Every structure is written in C-alpha cells, then in structure tokens.
C-alpha cells in the first residue's frame, strides 16, 4: 500500500503545487487506516477481517481516482467510479465491523484441568 501511495503521489506531483502537504497528510492517514485494518488479522474472525480489508482497499481506490481527477486529469466515468467505490468501500467496512466476532486465544497461564487425573 505504501508503494501504491508513493506511485500515486509521484504521478500527480506536478499538479499538487501548494496542496502537497495536505495530500501527504491525507494519504498518511489512509496508510494508518490500512495498518489498523491489518492489525485486526488475528484478533477477529476471518470473514469480518476480509470484509473490512477489502472495504479499505476499495475506499482507497476511490480516493486515488478523486486525487487523479482533482490534480492531474479527467478520467472516463470518474464520478461514477468515485461514488460507487466510495459507497462500496464504506458498506464493506461497516458490514465487516457489524459481523465481527472476537477470536478466543487459549490462555497459556491457565492450568489445564485434564492433567490432574
């Protein structure tokens, strides 16, 4: 995801002018979001994790199209792509959070009762 962000910033760098710092801050926040999603991997069930993971990726594609449209050039069907991916990304994120189930890890410090006999 970092490589995707660096590639996107280098692609639109010429058009940023005075907006370089706000765009960099925005994308570092997006990278932080991606990192938080990845850290959920062993804490929640796989289904919830995958919904949120793909939701964030779809949301970041929407952000990328918006940035290209704003600072570089127009794309075909850009409004449709932006809104479709934005809505789908948020839906997947919220749905994944709603169906979330915590994964129970065994407590290694708890005595095992089967060994007493």
UniProtKB/TrEMBL annotation:
Q: Please tell me where this protein is predominantly located.
A: membrane
Per the record, what is one GO cellular component?
A: membrane
Q: Which residues cross the membrane?
A: 20-38, 50-68, 80-99
Q: InterPro entries, alphabetically?
A: TMEM86B-like (IPR012506)
Where does this protein reside within or beyond the cell?
Answer: Membrane
Membrane topology according to the record: Multi-pass membrane protein
Q: Which Pfam families match?
A: YhhN
Record keywords:
Membrane, Transmembrane, Transmembrane helix
Which family does the entry's similarity section mention? Answer: Belongs to the TMEM86 family.
- The protein here is known as Uncharacterized protein
Q: Which organism is it from?
A: Algibacter mikhailovii
Taxonomic lineage from the root: Bacteria, Pseudomonadati, Bacteroidota, Flavobacteriia, Flavobacteriales
């Amino acid at each position: 995801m970092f490589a995707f962000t660096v590639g996107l910033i280098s692609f639109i760098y010429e058009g940023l002018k005075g907006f370089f710092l706000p765009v960099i801050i925005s994308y570092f926040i997006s990278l932080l979001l991606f990192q938080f999603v990845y850290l959920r991997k062993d804490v929640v069930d796989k289904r919830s994790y995958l919904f949120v993971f793909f939701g964030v990726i779809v949301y970041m594609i929407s952000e990328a199209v918006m940035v290209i449209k704003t600072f570089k050039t127009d794309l075909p069907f850009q409004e449709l792509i932006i809104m479709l991916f934005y809505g789908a990304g948020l839906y997947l994120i919220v749905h994944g959070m709603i169906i979330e189930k915590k994964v129970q890890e065994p407590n290694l410090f708890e005595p095992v009762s089967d060994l007493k006999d």
